[in-house]
């Protein structure tokens, strides 16, 4: 398609310029450059007639979107590894290639999860707020005591790329690593990372730190429920850099307030960008605005991979990170 014309494409938010330049060189690009996410009505209007779109986790790609786009839509390239905003089955039914950006943000997101563990355990954000408040203080043996990270037990829920990268960091802190996943990795991975499998309930009971790295699906919604929070140690720290709805936020706010667990570090929220008022009121919750992959290098790598996916699909090559390979195979068969 690319060789013949400059196909029209939509990019729903400003991305690093290098990636936009690559798209503009090959396509007729419409860029939504407003503040914040593109409003839904604008998204549906702008996608009409496009051959491809680069979308974000804030854009819902569903039947309504696909209807608005029209049958010429070839590819939706999400600039995120998570794709719970995309109805992949609907894309597949209509022969639309759906893509994401795995791999390039693994280490950066694992860094963020580790940073949240440290910040929540050692009360870093709370200490910062305290110093800035101007309150009188002097060093004291019982002042703002936290939890040790080194030599503690880390439970990783979801042992894919990011979960494993976190486990690798934990080894540097002499932590014991437990994990839970529906898929067990090969024995060499367990050995290399010194990670032991547990069922979820045992992991929650044994861990000093629990870090969540599962995709959001109907099965993982509220995976960390009130009942499961109650299984955790009162000294435990819960970290989430995956998707907000994996944790029941109301139950977590209650658990933090009651001291059922020690602290939480959250990058993502159930009704993002809204944050549960109960969490805002908890000094023992470290809250950051979905920054897991937010470094200059990684955001460029994500945008580049999204552009690779878009441009490949538009020049009849297999996109490097394809979520529905069956669409590609069907195309190859129909010539
Ligand atoms: C993703 O890629 O899914 C993150 O949530 C944003 O980097």
What does this protein structure show overall?
- The longest helix is centred in the last third of the chain and has 19 residues, at 296-314.
- By secondary structure, the protein is α/β, with parallel strands linked by helices.
- Helix content is 39%, strand content 14%.
- It starts with 7 loop residues before the first strand and ends with a helix.
- The protein has a seven-stranded parallel sheet, sandwiched between helices. Strands 2-1-3-4-5 form a five-stranded parallel sheet.
- Bound molecules: (2R)-2,3-dihydroxypropanoic acid.
- (2R)-2,3-dihydroxypropanoic acid binds next to loops.
Quick overview of this protein structure:
The protein has 335 residues and is an alpha/beta fold. It is built from 14 helices and twelve strands.
Counting helices, strands and paired strands, the structural category is alpha/beta
Strand content: 5-15%
Bound molecules: (2R)-2,3-dihydroxypropanoic acid
Distance between the termini: 14 Å
Q: Main attributes?
A:
335 residues; alpha/beta; seven-stranded parallel sheet; 14 helices; 14% strand; globular; binds (2R)-2,3-dihydroxypropanoic acid
Itemize the secondary structure elements and their pairings.
Layout: E1 8-11, H1 17-26, E2 28-31, H2 40-47, E3 52-55, H3 63-69, E4 75-78, H4 88-93, E5 97-99, H5 106-121, H6 124-133, E6 153-157, H7 161-172, E7 176-180, H8 187-193, E8 195-197, H9 200-206, E9 209-212, H10 226-229, E10 237-240, H11 249-258, E11 263-266, H12 277-280, E12 285-287, H13 296-314, H14 325-333
Parallel strand pairs: 1-2, 1-3, 3-4, 4-5, 6-7, 6-9, 7-8, 9-10, 10-11, 11-12
Helix pairs in contact: 1-13, 2-3, 5-7
Bound molecules: (2R)-2,3-dihydroxypropanoic acid (DGY).
């Amino acid at each position: 398609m690319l060789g013949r014309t400059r196909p029209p494409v939509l990019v729903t938010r400003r991305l690093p310029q290098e990636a936009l330049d690559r798209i503009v060189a090959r396509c007729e690009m419409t860029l939504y450059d407003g503040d914040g996410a593109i409003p839904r009505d604008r998204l549906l209007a702008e996608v009409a007639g496009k051959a491809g779109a680069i979308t974000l986790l804030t854009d819902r790609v569903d039947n309504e979107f696909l209807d608005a786009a029209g049958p010429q839509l070839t590819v939706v390239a999400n600039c995120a590894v998570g794709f719970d905003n995309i109805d992949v089955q609907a894309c597949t039914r209509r022969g639309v290639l759906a893509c994401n950006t795995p791999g390039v943000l693994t280490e950066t997101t694992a860094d963020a999860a580790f940073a949240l563990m440290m910040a929540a355990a050692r009360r870093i954000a709370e200490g910062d707020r305290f110093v800035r408040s101007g309150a009188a203080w002097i060093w004291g043996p019982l002042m703002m005591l936290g939890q040790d990270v080194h030599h503690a037990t880390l439970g990783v829920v979801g042992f894919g790329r990011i979960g494993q990268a976190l486990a690798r960091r934990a080894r540097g802190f002499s932590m014991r690593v437990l994990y839970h996943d529906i898929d067990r990795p090969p024995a060499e991975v367990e050995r290399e990372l010194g990670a032991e499998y547990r069922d979820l309930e045992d992991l929650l009971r044994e861990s000093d730190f629990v870090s969540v790295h599962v995709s959001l699906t109907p099965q993982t919604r509220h995976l960390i429920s009130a009942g499961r929070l109650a299984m955790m140690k009162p000294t435990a720290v819960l970290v989430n850099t995956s998707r907000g709805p994996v944790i029941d936020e109301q139950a977590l706010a209650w658990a933090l307030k009651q001291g059922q667990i020690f602290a939480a570090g959250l990058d993502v929220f159930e009704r993002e960008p809204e944050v549960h008022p109960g969490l805002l009121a908890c000094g023992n919750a470290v809250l950051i605005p979905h920054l897991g992959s937010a470094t200059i290098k990684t955001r460029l790598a994500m945008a580049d991979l999204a552009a690779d996916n878009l441009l490949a699909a538009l020049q009849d090559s297999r996109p490097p990170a394809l979520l529905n390979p069956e669409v590609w195979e069907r195309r190859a068969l129909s010539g």
